[in-house]
């Protein structure tokens, strides 16, 4: 990699970090590209060279966040292991991520931005959905192996994640509840496993 490319990468990363700070502090609507450029220590032109709009910049932040999240969930299906044993670390990683302060702050910003612009929200959700494939792929593989009942894999994945979010995301986002203790995280994961496997596991 050449030196100019490294400088470009550093500037891009500085812009993203500045944008995260500004979005967290001031929300989507109030944050301007001028302010992001000033915080990043680069020109406004440089910001626009990397990101054509504030929406694109925000979407990139969410994409990076989701990429980190789903990387932890990339657990290949194994036919030789119990389903519960395989699913537990996937769901535990999800609960842990949902409780991350950075993630919650950005999720609040995203939800506020979505309320102001439903169309923008649909685009963001679509982009984020592109990354939430790990669990769906795992479910599809377990179905192909005859160990989970036939159902839309993405629906089943969303269903089990909804069980987690009802304890580990929405109360914190909407009512400012504190994050779950490690013990409560474990309880939520085991309960979600019970319900998911009772519904979908082939007996």
TrEMBL record:
<dbReference type="InterPro" id="IPR009057">
    <property type="entry name" value="Homeodomain-like_sf"/>
</dbReference>
<dbReference type="Pfam" id="PF14246">
    <property type="entry name" value="TetR_C_7"/>
</dbReference>
<dbReference type="InterPro" id="IPR050109">
    <property type="entry name" value="HTH-type_TetR-like_transc_reg"/>
</dbReference>
<dbReference type="InterPro" id="IPR023772">
    <property type="entry name" value="DNA-bd_HTH_TetR-type_CS"/>
</dbReference>
<feature type="domain" description="HTH tetR-type">
    <location>
        <begin position="9"/>
        <end position="69"/>
    </location>
</feature>
<feature type="DNA-binding region" description="H-T-H motif">
    <location>
        <begin position="32"/>
        <end position="51"/>
    </location>
</feature>
<protein>
    <submittedName>
        <fullName>TetR/AcrR family transcriptional regulator</fullName>
    </submittedName>
</protein>
<keyword id="KW-0238">DNA-binding</keyword>
<dbReference type="InterPro" id="IPR001647">
    <property type="entry name" value="HTH_TetR"/>
</dbReference>
<dbReference type="InterPro" id="IPR039536">
    <property type="entry name" value="TetR_C_Proteobacteria"/>
</dbReference>
<dbReference type="InterPro" id="IPR036271">
    <property type="entry name" value="Tet_transcr_reg_TetR-rel_C_sf"/>
</dbReference>
<dbReference type="Pfam" id="PF00440">
    <property type="entry name" value="TetR_N"/>
</dbReference>
């Amino acid at each position: 990699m050449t030196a100019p490319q490294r400088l470009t990468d550093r500037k891009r990363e500085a812009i993203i970090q500045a944008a995260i700070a500004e979005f967290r502090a001031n929300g989507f609507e109030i944050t301007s590209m001028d302010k992001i450029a000033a915080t990043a220590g680069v020109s406004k032109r440089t910001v626009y060279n990397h990101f054509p709009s504030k929406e694109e910049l925000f979407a990139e932040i969410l994409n990076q966040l989701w990429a980190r999240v789903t990387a932890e969930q990339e657990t290949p299906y194994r036919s030789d292991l119990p389903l519960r044993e395989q699913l537990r670390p996937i769901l535990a990683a999800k609960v842990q991520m949902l409780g991350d302060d950075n993630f919650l702050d950005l999720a609040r910003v995203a939800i506020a931005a979505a309320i102001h612009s439903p169309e923008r929200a649909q685009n963001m959700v679509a982009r984020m959905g592109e990354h939430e494939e790990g669990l769906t792929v795992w479910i599809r593989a377990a179905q192909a192996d005859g160990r989970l009942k036939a159902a839309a894999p993405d629906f089943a994945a969303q269903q089990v994640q909804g069980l987690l979010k009802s304890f580990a995301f929405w109360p914190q986002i909407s009512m400012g509840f504190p994050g779950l203790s490690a013990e409560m995280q474990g309880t939520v994961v085991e309960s979600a496993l019970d319900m998911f496997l009772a519904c979908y596991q082939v007996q």
